[in-house]
Prior knowledge:
By secondary structure, the protein is of the alpha/beta class. The protein has six helices and 15 strands. It has helices spanning 146-149, 151-166, 205-208, 260-273, 292-304, 308-322; strands at 28-29, 33-35, 48-49, 59-76, 82-98, 103-117, 125-127, 130-136, 174-179, 191-195, 200-201, 218-219, 223-226, 231-237, 249-254. The chain is globular. The N and C termini lie far apart (67 Å). The relative contact order is 0.21.
Amino acid sequence: MTRMFVDAWDPSYGSSFEGGEGGDGPASSSSAQVDVEVEVPATEWAPIDVSRTAVAPDVVFLVDGVRRNDAGLWTAEEDGTTYPGLAASYAAGVVRCDLARGAAELVGARVARGLFTASPSATDVQAGSVRYEVHRISGTGEASKLPAAVQGPLTALEIEISAAARDGGSDGADLLIVDGPLRNRRQLPRTIGYVKTQQKHYLPAAQEAVVPRLRPGQRTPVFHLGTVWGGWSWYLRLPGSSGAPWSGIVRVECSPELSAEQAVELADVSVATLPRFASSAYKDPRAPQNLVPIAGLERRLRGMLGDARVLHRALSMATSRGR
Length: 323
């Protein structure tokens, strides 16, 4: 009999997996070279329970960033050419969770604004009390590519604020969870990337068949991705899933600079740590993947971005004065 499942995620957020036919998992395949024999031979792949020796760290930092497009702009150059521009606000923050005390606190948050354009003549825009710093984009700077340009400065802000939060001290026994792929944050120590939306197939069919068999609190063996941002990776299932094959599945990754043994150790730590932060469907439309501290941090950061209507009006007034 055909079974049907309702994805716990609010449909306005898309889906927790970019599914193929029947919602059985990611829709497209990755071209990355994958080594599935990092932890066990390929023929011995099976769900792995949390290790008896794995201990969650006393302190867990969770970092995330948010961004918002405040206004689209155009420049008119002296030679008659025009360039599109994007005025955007973005913010990053860190939540410190003391698992021993059962307490969580915001230990750092910062807002930045930017004007993203390929215009050679554009300068910073002062919109009321807010300043949008110019970020020069290479190439022709098509309008469709400008939103993606915000990710670089946002990532840099996340790295900066994460380092500052950790300077407070945790005896080197902490864990930093980055919401999303690590990318150029691979140099951060004791850090894992947390990917909650699955868009691509990375594993061969025989090994990928293990993923839907995971029970809450289980993970796959560690595998290695040979991509530009490659590294060690594994899947795990969080508690509170709907029962659909890929419901509650997240992909976790760590730096390729680590040894295979260190990656396996981090995989065990992640299984001991991440499930306790899983959200509930009645509280979060992206449950269980949207971790509780991350959800609270996102709400706080979006509030810090300010009123989009006020900023749009200030930008309109500032550019009209310039004309």
